[in-house]
Amino acid sequence: MSRLVVVSNRVPVPDKAGNPPAGGLAVALHAALKERGGIWMGWSGKSTGEAEPGPLSIMNNGAIQYALTDLTDRDVAEYYNGFANRVLWPICHCRIDLAEYARREMAGYFRVNRLFADRLVPLLRPDDVIWVHDYHLIPLAEELRRRGVQNRIGFFLHIPWPPADVFFSVPVYESILRGLASYDVVGFQTDYDVDNFAACLRREGSGDRIGGGRFRAYGRSFIAADFPIGMETAEFAELAEDAAHDRRIREMARSMQGRDLLIGVDRLDYSKGIPERIAAYEAFLKGNPEFQDKVVYLQVTPKSRSEVPEYAAMQENVASLAGRLNGSLGSLDWVPMRYINRSLRRPLLAGLYRMAKVGLVTPLRDGMNLVAKEFVAAQDPANPGVLVLSRFAGAARELDSALLINPHDAEGTGRAIARALSMPLAERKERWEHMMKRLLSHDVTHWCADYLSHLEPQRPTLVPEPAP
Ligand code: GDG
User: Fold this and answer.
1) Is 443 a catalytic residue?
2) Are 251 and 221 in contact (CB under 8 A)?
3) ipTM score here?
């Protein structure tokens, strides 16, 4: 089996005991790397100020080598906080209004991708299989090809791919499309994303599907298909069951005084629909006064990308909406919404999901949304809670037994919350069993193996083919 080389913006480096950080993706990729041997390369998360970054820092952990590069302040500002998070992220989430184009930042994005390519090439062996992750590194394959790399190179996009009209608002959209066509396998979360990507190529006249999941564009042929990401379902279910014995979970349960818990867990990000969710909860409480004082909504929201202005503004906004809601509807002994603006440990999170009667996952747009899957995996099979899920999350393609809602419709979402809280046990069980079956058969290990089986060298490809 050939060696695996994973490249991503950040690298989940294991702790001193050699254990990878919690979370499905890190665990699954570490397992694949351990089995095949290989390298995980990315940004160290550190900045050198104005000085040029020195050589890669290499750490060995058994069969896995971590190769980390520092970036300059300018790189971080232009590549990471700039083009990646102020252009590609909002565009892929259909927020043209939030995209800030600056030529300088676009240039910085391509410059850092060249730096990654320069650093990676000396580490490569001819039969390595290379797997690049996410929107920060789209141009990497093209840069590697320019340097003569002929290995199989795959890409997986964790976020959605937008409709053509939205994508074409990026001034350098053509370079991005050509960059994707330099891979051998381009993976998306859902078939909707693949369709949007196909429409971009077609509209541009630069390529199209040629059948069997294959595309031809910019003179190359490659696979583009959906590979919906999974989670470590069985392990997480166990974690949630064990959490019942955790002191903090028992204290939390006591503090509820018999009220039902609704839970939302999201990075603080405008794509997650947190203000819209608070509005829906308010609509629910006002439309169903019999539930007032009977429920508590817990929102766990670690800070994220605080250096990007839109995120700082969002932080203020959510805090003020939570305060306003509690001020207007709360009473002497009932706080309708509890808001935690920091990260909780994963086992605690698992226990909270299990305690909740309703999971609120209402993004305006999301590649997949693993919180939706984690909520389902954490439930007690004998008395499962109900998932209220946005139809604009990739997860809705698989979890169609959730109560699917439109997050822009506060009253409709409010009605779904009331329905979830009143749902009979038999219906809850039937919906949950259906979803859990899917999550067990399509877990993150399955996702990883399925993707890599498409990337293996024996798959037919990729002698450059003439343009259509
Ligand atoms: C991108 C795509 C796609 C959250 N709060 C805490 C915490 N979390 C963990 C959750 C979950 C993860 O963070 C968030 O994953 P999501 O999938 O929900 O969202 P993104 O971060 O936007 O991820 C997304 C994903 O990539 C994978 O492809 O699904 O669509 O946007 O695992 O549990 N974890 C801990 N404490 C917290 O407070 N420990």
Assistant:
1) no
2) no
3) 0.99
